[in-house]
Amino acid sequence: MNKIDALLDVLSKIYQILVLVYNSKYHGNLAFEEDPQMNRQEVKDYLGISESTYKRKVKEGALKPLKLPGGDKYYKSQLLSEFKESKRRGRV
Question: What separation in angstroms does the CA of 89 have from each of 54, 74, 85, 86?
């Protein structure tokens, strides 16, 4: 049973590496499984911005959502620079 567990562990690590490569190639970032996905409302609450500011930031390219069924999604790691800007402006 130890060989099977070791094989499953190796396969799990290979899968995680493939997910990282896919995300970096198609989404421009490295996202780990511990990096939670956030929806549109959660992003607005996290950054302390309004709907109009959100739309403007998406249009300007400051926020780059992943277009998935069910709405825009973001990885929390993608929002670090915008979060710092919100803190600097006193929104958060």
Answer: 15, 22, 6, 5
Angle CA 77–80–81, to nearest 5: 140
pTM over 0.85: no
Tell me how far apart the alpha carbons of residues 77 and 92 are, in angstroms, rounded to a whole number: 17
Quick one: average pLDDT of 33-53?
Answer: 87
Architecture label for domain 35-92: Orthogonal Bundle (1.10)
CA distance 72 to 78: 13
Residues 13, 40: Cα–Cα separation, whole Å: 30
